[in-house]
Write a structure and sequence with these properties.
The protein contains 4 helices and no strands. It starts with a helix and ends in a 21-residue tail after the last helix. 69% of the residues lie in helices and 0% in strands. By secondary structure, the protein is an all-alpha fold. The protein is elongated.
Length: 127
């Protein structure tokens, strides 16, 4: 029986390539389509961000087991666990904005509609 590592490596390479394609495609989407795509990407359950978060969490579980065996330094497990928690927090923070992205995509675009009023950009950060 062959070892699954080559497949996992190839799969990771292919997903990375596809993420690059997705980013390139997203950059070229018309303004009425981009928000819907972004909302799907950011979906914490079924989107790319949710998938990456799950992947890092799975890596953290693996690293914990290997750290307990002494095969990996505990710092690797701690770093992956921290990254998993941070990604989860980020996904939850962004999830609350997905509905606004979906709404803006659903609005009909008409030539007579008055343009939206720009809002001042205020940086706020909560933890």
């Amino acid at each position: 029986m062959s070892h699954p590592t080559p497949y996992a490596g190839q799969l990771a390479d292919e997903i990375t390539r596809q993420l690059g394609q997705l980013a390139d495609h997203l950059a070229q989407l018309p303004p009425h389509e981009a928000p819907q795509a972004i909302a799907r990407i950011l979906d914490p359950d079924d989107g790319v961000l949710g998938g990456v978060t799950h992947l890092v969490a799975t890596g953290s579980v693996f690293a914990k087991t290997e750290a307990e065996r002494g095969a990996l330094p505990a710092e690797v497990w701690l770093a992956l666990g921290r990254a998993s928690n941070e990604l989860n927090d980020i996904a939850l923070d962004l999830d609350e904005h997905c509905e606004a992205l979906r709404r803006i995509s659903a609005r009909p675009t008409t030539a007579t509609a008055k343009p939206p009023v720009p809002a001042p950009l205020v940086v706020r950060r909560r933890r």
